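Known limitations

Files may contain more than one protein. Parsers should not assume a single record per file. Below, a two-record file is shown to illustrate correct handling: read the sequence, read the token line, then continue until end of file.
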Amino acid sequence: MSISPRKNTHQVLVGNVKVGGAAPIVVQSMTNTDTANIAATVKQVMELANAGSELVRITVNNEEAAEAVPEIRKQLDANGFSVPLVGDFHFNGHKLLEKYPECAKALGKFRINPGNVGKGAKRDTQFQQMIECAVKYDKPVRIGVNGGSLDQAVLTRLLDENRQKAEPDELSAVTREAIIISALESAAAAESFGLSKNKIILSCKISNVQELISIYQDLSSRCEYALHLGLTEAGIGSKGIVASSAALSVLMQKGIGDTIRISLTPEPGAARTKEVIVAQEILQTMGFRSFTPMVIACPGCGRTTSDYFQKLAMNIQGFLREQMPVWRDKYNGVEEMEVAVMGCVVNGPGESKNANIGISLPGTGETPVAPVYEDGEKTVTLKGDRIAEEFQEIVERYIERTYSA
């Protein structure tokens, strides 16, 4: 199956990052620190950026958070991190942006949820205030509609219209339309307040995979705004990874989507960077972008009763990912490298030959030696207690020799 060409959308510049148009699909993430805690937020933003997040969203929910944003930006810049910050505003964003102009200036983008900008007559006024602030400081805006906080005025209006039909639509269809209409009407309003098309990114996020796919297909056919993809409240662990992969892969295969976030619930004590890694691996395994050398490893079977090859594969993968912040600038094209770590002679030599560099470890009952292949040719056979260390050294030498500028 071929990948559909990316839908032609308006390109949006978020800080130094291009979103939409012909730009590569952008990976973004969000901190879960208290933004008012400057040290903790700076630390997590740097961790996310090092992992490969190209945009990082932070919560701006109160005056303390708004006041902290300029200092967070200052410290990031001082540490050599230019990653743009996206301010996440709900309920009181209009007040915070007006009272703290330095916060507005420090942010690379505003995120506004039309369902959370105010009720009744206040809604349009407060939305307008935020858009006019974006125009004043030349900032792009993501208008992010969420199924869980949908603008009830829009939903009520469409339900009333639906009741007048001879054959009313199902509630799920009306809700999907309400989500799309909320995004499109809000974008039109933003344009009427002076925000240009190339300053607008839209998202319509819900937690049901099939509904999300349906919504974005419809939304994409009805506008040319850059689109942010994400399955909101994706879940924890494998459920969140699988659900996000299923939804976003289908959409990107159809050429829909300009930037993505994987909204994983972190497992207790787990690094926030997991969502960045998952986003990168989705894009890389589908062939959209390359971020870090990929490790090919077999699943193991009765031939591989030792866990040696699993540990080696895990250690090599961790080593490659840890080195990427340094290697990105030092080694051109290293992110496209493939490393094979195989556990026996069935597929081991073949997969190792097909990779840039690979090792075929001995399975149960096999001769305790491990041939290493570089660009299809066997170069050395490792044996003894230092196979893992020696293979890592060989990988490092291969990278130095092959990818140095």
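...continuing to the second record:
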Amino acid sequence: MRVALGRLGAEGLGLRAVSRFWRTPAHPAGSGPDYVNAAAVVAAGSMSPEAVLAALHRVEADLGRVRDGTRWGARVIDLDLLAMGGEVRPDAATQDRWRALPAAAQVQVAPDRLILPHPRLQDRGFVLAPLAEIAPGWVHPRLGQSVAAMLAALGPEGLAGMAPEGGRAQV
């Protein structure tokens, strides 16, 4: 994780804030070993969301990630673009449709384009807990809720098995 964070600058992304690292169970349960999750705020200048995602994918590839179409399988690294301000991509109806996708379909179907904000960030403690450390006031543009409110709505069961690893990440 630290290596990935260190490579963001070479891709034109300025690291502004990083959460603690969180040890979390694999998602979905039983799909692999525990993960280490973190959230970062980056400055992307005039880069489009698609260009930012491409930069994240280059960092993943440099670190050995092979994208073979498998959904939610064990992987060396997984960098997600969760949001860019209040942008909704590609449009509100598509964002809502992906957010409402039933759990059984989520493992089978992958979007063919960038969906922003990430369609399930509001459902995942392993996303919200680190994000709440660095951007608790960010408001989901479709749900109208802050990160802090979405995290609180998950309740303790949404953080089951998760634990922060010490202090803030150093890069």
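Parsers that stop after the first record will miss the second one. For reference, the second record is described as follows. Strands lie at 14-18, 20-24, 35-37, 40-43, 163-168.
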